[in-house]
Every structure is written in C-alpha cells, then in structure tokens.
Design brief:
This is Mu-like prophage I protein. Keywords: Coiled coil. Pfam families: Mu-like_Pro (PF10123). By secondary structure, the chain is α/β, with parallel strands linked by helices. The chain contains ten helices and eleven strands. The protein is elongated, with a radius of gyration of 53 Å.
C-alpha cells in the first residue's frame, strides 16, 4: 500500500454545496473502521464490466479533531492500492497536489431543524446523526473546506444529489412567504368589543374607528415628544442656573478670604479654580486659616508693648535702672520720665 504524505479532511461542519451541514460528533465511524474502503468519486464496482472502478485503497487512522479556521472535522490517512495502476495514478495526482479533495459517503439517520444548529447560508436541515460508509477521493469539493459529500440510503444505494437545491431526500427549512402575512383572520365580536363598537357595527365603522385610533396614537406620540423636548430644555436651564449659583458662591467664598486677609489678591483665580472643583475642601481650608495682621494692628500691638515696658521701668529707682542697664531704654521710651529719675538722683541737675 502507498501511504500518502498528507492526511485528508473527510467531513467538516461547514454548509456544503447542497445547502445542509453535518455534525462531526454525530458521525458513527465504528462500522467504517471495520472496512475502511476508499473509492474514486463514490463509484462502486458492480457486475463484471472491465471498465468499472474498483476501490483504490483504504483510509485509516480516523480522528476527530479541531482545526484552525475549519472547526470540528474528521480526518484520515489515505492508503492507495499499489497493485492497481489506476489507484497508483490517483495516488500520484494526490501527492503532487492535482487532486486534493475527499468526500464522505454517509447514511443519514437523524435530521434536525433546530435553529441553534443553523449557520448562515444553510437551506437544508442539519444532519445530526449519520453513519460513515465509505470515503472517496474526488475532483471537485462541495464546500470551502475542499470537501464533497455523498449520501446513501438504508439499502446502501447512492443518493443522487443536486447542487440547485432540488433534493427530496434532504429536509429543507421552511421559508416564510410574505404572502402569508397579508391575511389575518380575526373574530368579529372580539374585535368590535376591543374597539368599543356595537355588535351591529359594519366595516365602515370599524375602519373609521381604527383610523381614529391611529390618528389619536400619532397625536399622543407628538404630545409625548413635545413634553420630552420641554423637559430636556427645562432640565438644561435648571442645570445652567445651578452652575451659575455655584459659581457665584465660589467667587463670594474666595473674595471673602481675600477681604479677611487669609489669601492675597494674586491667589484669587487659583483658589476659584480649586473651589469650583471641590468647594467644601477649600471652604474648610479657609476656615482653618489665620488672617494676616494689618500694619495698624501691628503698630498698635507694638505701642501696647512699649507702654507696658515703660510702666515697669518707671517703677524702678535710678540705682536699679543703672544696675540693669534700663536707663538708656527709659530715655528712649520716655525722655520725660528719664529726666525725673535723673533729678531724683541728682537734685542739683538742671
């Protein structure tokens, strides 16, 4: 036997030329493994004619696997009969790439129209259960994975398939006709009750009532849209006013901090920007700040301190002031008090 270098894809789950697809996990390969026959173009030898095609080999080592870009497949290893000249010619064409396609001969067991199994472009049911009977090398495939397919009936007779969709053996998906949507049967009493009309109302009254309801619905839609637009505009105005109020509060907060001498005027814009982002934090920051003293307050504080110091110096005698060096300080703070101390010590002093 001549072992091919390449394995072949026997079956994939793509939609085939005939509009249906086959589930890989549903293919029973046990029977085939016992007789792994490989044919040419699904041709089986019958009778004693000299020109019939005999099997050209076997496909062994079948394996279910997942291939990138293809999905779930069954692959196998082709083995060509080296005692058959025709089989050897097919082998040579397969090895040099002239022939590349394989085809599964399946006996359908269960079809399904389950929508979860459908794929784009599928027109026939999904074959969920089948039995693999033979594998063929073929010249033209039936789908994008370079595969063809053949079906056998329960008598192991090959079913002729057509690529134009006229295959009675393949259940077809139901197509919804637009014509079926044009006529709706209604129960008259129920309709009249729903419309609020008397049982004796005729077609003219029914149509008039329907027109009235349609117009009323359109009017309500317009009113709803008008109210929706008005609400959106009102919400936008409220947001604008809220933003303006917040901005005014921020400016007032920062301006007060400037007035209170907690920040200088040059920092105003910076703190306004911060307060717009987080007003509460900036407000808490200002609360914890001490106001910078004014020049007047500093002078007043200085004068108050000097008065206290002068009062303490006046309490001392000349000798005490002389000893602690307070005379010069007393003279600076109050020349008059200094003269008093000098005259107390030196009565003759003019």
């Amino acid at each position: 036997m001549l072992r091919a270098i390449k394995r072949i894809i026997i079956s994939s789950e793509s939609v085939n030329l005939y509009g249906f697809r086959v589930l890989t996990d549903g293919i029973d390969i046990d029977q085939y493994d016992k007789n792994p026959i490989m044919l040419w173009m699904h041709n089986r030898a019958f009778g004693t004619k000299d020109n019939v095609f005999l099997p050209i080999g076997n496909v062994i080592e079948l394996k279910r696997e997942e291939l990138d870009g293809v999905g779930k497949v069954i692959t196998g290893q082709p083995m060509f009969d080296d005692t058959d000249e025709f089989a050897k010619s097919i082998y040579n064409k397969f090895e040099n790439g002239t022939l590349r396609m394989a085809s599964a001969g399946l006996n359908p067991k269960t079809w399904s129209d389950d929508e979860s199994l459908l794929m784009p472009g599928q027109t026939g049911y999904t074959l969920v259960k089948s039995v693999l009977q033979e594998v063929s090398i073929v010249d033209i495939g039936g789908n994008d994975d370079a595969l063809s397919i053949a079906l056998y009936d329960d008598n192991k007779e090959l079913i002729t398939l057509s690529s134009n969709g006229e295959n009675a053996q393949i259940p077809q998906l139901k197509q919804i006709s637009n014509d079926s949507m044009k006529t709706i049967q209604l129960n008259a009493p129920d309709v009249l009750t729903k419309l609020g009309l008397a049982d004796t109302a005729g077609a003219t009254e029914v149509l008039a009532k329907i027109d009235n309801l349609v117009n009323l619905s359109a009017q309500k839609d317009t009113e709803i849209q008008t109210l929706k637009t008005a609400k959106e505009q009102a919400d936008a105005k409220v947001t604008e006013l809220q933003n303006k109020q917040t901005e005014n509060e921020v400016i007032a907060l920062v301006d007060k901090a400037v007035t209170d001498r907690k920040i200088v005027a040059g920092q105003r814009d910076h703190f306004i920007k911060l307060a717009k982002a987080d007003k509460e934090t900036v407000e808490a920051m200002f609360t914890g700040m001490q106001a910078a003293p004014t020049v007047q307050s500093q002078l007043a504080a200085d004068n108050g301190g000097k008065k206290d110091e002068l009062a303490e110096l006046v309490k001392l005698s000349y000798d005490e002031l002389f000893e602690n060096g307070g005379l010069s300080k007393l003279k600076t703070l109050s020349p008059d008090e200094y003269e008093v101390k000098m005259k107390e010590k030196f009565p003759s002093r003019k």
